[in-house]
Amino acid sequence: MTIPYSSTTTTPKTASATSVASSSTSMTSSSVVCGSAPLNTLRVGGSSSLATGGLWPWMASLQRGGKHVCGGTLITEQFVLSSADCFSSSTNASEWTVFLGRLNQNGPNPNEVSLRVNNITLSNLTGNNVVVLELASKPTLSDFIQPICVDLGTETFSTGTQCWIVGWGSGQGGVQQTLQEVQTTVVDCGSSASPENICTGFVTLQQGDDGGPLMCKQGLAWFQPAVLTVVNSTSSSSSRRNNTSGFMVFNRLMRYNSFLRKAVDSLPSPAFDNSSSVPNSTVSPTTTTVSICPFNSAKTSEDPLDQTFPSPPLDSSNTGGRAKAPYVQADMITRCSSLNN
């Protein structure tokens, strides 16, 4: 990405995941909420913006050998979600460090903490996969460090919903020194419409953006309906550009429900009451979306859906109790280097 932004595992219980490392811990999040970004004052209807520290407090920099490899997101006090592609070179937990509250890859980061990784748990389904990192210790939550809400399928991202992508990716094979952001908008999927898809305006990710989130605000909380992976033209992909309309089609990978339920015991509740009538953050469907560079379409994974993943507790007056819905995740975009191939 090229828009500057100045901000800011448990061992699996079945053969459906591959775990690398030692012990696991039980994570509880009853007193923690997700999706809260106290310093985020993004205007509705904007395109791209400069921001101050803490805009995306769940954003993580996953590093190996002192270098940024991928992005990730804090989804509980002790677990980080990313793309499994980031770990093709090493799944040794002792080689990885997670930075939270980070803005600059070089330079001062007064609100940053660095955390060792205790356990790495990979899903091992056919096609693209995700990874959950268990941190060796819990960070102190602050305005600059907060978990994001994982979209469990209870959210409706209607046409016009404003969403954002952030990362340190660079088209020159390195990384951006300052965290970058770009806005996109949920659009009608047209001929690609499916309960498993979410479509947005055209954006391009680059190497180093892998593992980062697509983020959309619902009421007062930020949700993550997508984990992004930048892959080369020879890799299978479960997201693609619609060659006719030019928008992005993200497959909602519900097949990871069972894996995530085993890797993460529970997820925090959203930072708002679902029974309240707070409108979604939206922009006009005709708003121009950011286009950085084109890339070709890619193969979509056709793995079967997995079982449902329990959602956070919801207000009983609105849902009739604790709702259950599929875990929703989308990912995988082709790297700029594969454009026009």
Largest sheet: 6 strands, antiparallel, barrel
Helical element count?
A: 2
Oligomer: single chain
**CATH homologous superfamily label:** Trypsin-like serine proteases
CATH third-level topology: Thrombin, subunit H
Which shape, going by the Cα principal axes?
globular
CATH architecture: Beta Barrel
- CATH level 1 class label: Mainly Beta
Q: If strands are numbered along the chain, what order do they take across the biggest sheet?
A: 3-4-5-8-7-6
Based on secondary structure, the structural category is: mainly beta
Radius of gyration: 18 Å
Q: How many structural domains can be distinguished in the coordinates?
A: 1
Q: What is the CA-CA span between the terminal residues? A: 20 Å
**Strand tally:** 21
Q: What is the ordering of alpha helices and beta strands?
A: EEEEEEEEEEEEEEEEEHEEHEE
Kindly state the mean pLDDT as a whole number?
Answer: 71
Task: Give the amount of beta strand, in percent.
Answer: 25-35%
Low-confidence stretches: 2-29, 274-341
How much helix is in the residues? under 10%
Descriptive key words:
disordered C terminus; 30% strand; mainly beta; serine-type endopeptidase activity; Serine protease 27-like; single chain
What does this entry show, briefly?
This protein is mainly β.
Description:
With 341 residues, the chain is mainly beta. The protein contains 2 helices and 21 strands. Helices cover 3% and strands 30% of the residues. A hairpin with a 4-residue loop joins strand 4 (67-74) and strand 5 (79-83). The chain has a single domain (47-268, 279-296, 323-335), classed as Thrombin, subunit H (Beta Barrel), CATH 2.40.10.10. 52% of the residues are buried.
